Amino acid sequence: MGVKKIGIIVKADPAVSPKADALERWLVGKGVETLRRESRPPHTGQLGENIDRAPADLDCILVLGGDGTFLSAVRWIGDQNIPILGVKFGEVGFLAEIAEDRLHAVAETILNDTITTQPRMRLRVRVIRQNTERAVETVLNDVVINKGALARLAHIETRINDRYLTTYRADGLIIATPTGSTAYSLAAGGPVIHPTVPAVVMTPICPFTLTNRPLIIPDTATVTINLAERSSDIMLTFDGQQGLPIDDRDTIVVSKSPYPIYLISEPSQNYYDVLKAKLRWSGGRT
User: Fold this and answer.
1) CB of 110 within 8 A of CB of 265?
2) 252 by DSSP, 3-state: which?
3) Is 67 a catalytic residue?
């Protein structure tokens, strides 16, 4: 057996803890060392490399919870190549995609070293102020510029590969990966992009100009963003997990990260089936 140490990330939920206890006992009974950790709620606070990271000797990480718990686990992994699997409690999720009743069967597959993984592209986000990096973050889903509830429309000057594109007048702007295309971007009117498509989607949030539509660009592109002068009450969020107040002194640079995340794939789980279930698409089967 090649698997010796497994991380378990658990949603802080009384309904989930007993399942995590049972899984931990089962793994220990199989001779596997476990490292258990409760997911942390999203917050505005410390960014960068000073946060703790998953130990490099983990063979994989199992996430018990929803997509938010999964994203916190991805943040814990950082730039390391540690495979991850999400186990959804309740409704099917896009990231935590296997149901809890499949947990032990899939864990058995992991212990038998018969798993396959799928790389998912991530974005690297740099926030620069006066030639100094305020933050460097990696996101799996999206980076979002959002105005506060009482703020005026944000004026978001946007360049692609150093060429001016437009200045969005909107409540905000979402820059999402294909994985993140089914999250906030979708709610804001963006398209669904299959995870293997090498692309990034830029989706304005409630744009003042109705011709400002979502734009799909190659994943090789670099997006550079500045806010108009005297912008206030604007927040930059990373995967909905961390927030950073920004203003017109900041330059945000978004590009493809060299470090994808590796999702453990469940052979019985089909992306389009998850999509149909989550979006409640109807229609007969042939």
Assistant:
1) no
2) strand
3) yes
- Annotated domain spans of the chain: 5-121+260-279, 123-256
Who contacts 250 (Cβ-Cβ below 8 Å, separation ≥6)?
A: 127, 128, 129, 134, 226, 227, 236
Q: Does domain 123-256 have CATH number 2.60.200.30?
A: yes
Q: What's residue 48's pLDDT?
A: 56
Query: pLDDT tens digit string along 94-104?
Result: 887 788 888 88
Residues contacting 119, CB < 8 A, separation 6+: 260, 261, 262, 263
Which of 13, 52, 57, 67 is an active site residue? Answer: 67
Please calculate the CA angle 47-136-125 and round it to the nearest 5 degrees: 120
Which residues partner with 226 through β-bridges?
A: 157, 251
**Superfamily of 5-121+260-279 according to CATH:** Probable inorganic polyphosphate/atp-NAD kinase; domain 1 (3.40.50.10330)
Position 92 scores a pLDDT of: 60
Write out residues in the chain with pLDDT < 70, as ranges.
Answer: 1, 42-51, 90-92, 283-286
- Compute CA 174 distance to the chain's CA centroid, rounded to the nearest angstrom: 13
Neighbouring-strand partners of residue 201 = 176, 216
DSSP per residue, 58-108? -SEEEEEE-HHHHHHHHHHHTTS---EEEEESSS--SSS-EEGGGHHHHHH
How confident is the model at residue 50, as a pLDDT? 54
Q: What is the pLDDT of residues 16-47, one digit of tens each?
A: 899 999 999 999 999 999 999 988 776 655 56
Q: Are 195 and 178 in contact (CB under 8 A)?
A: yes
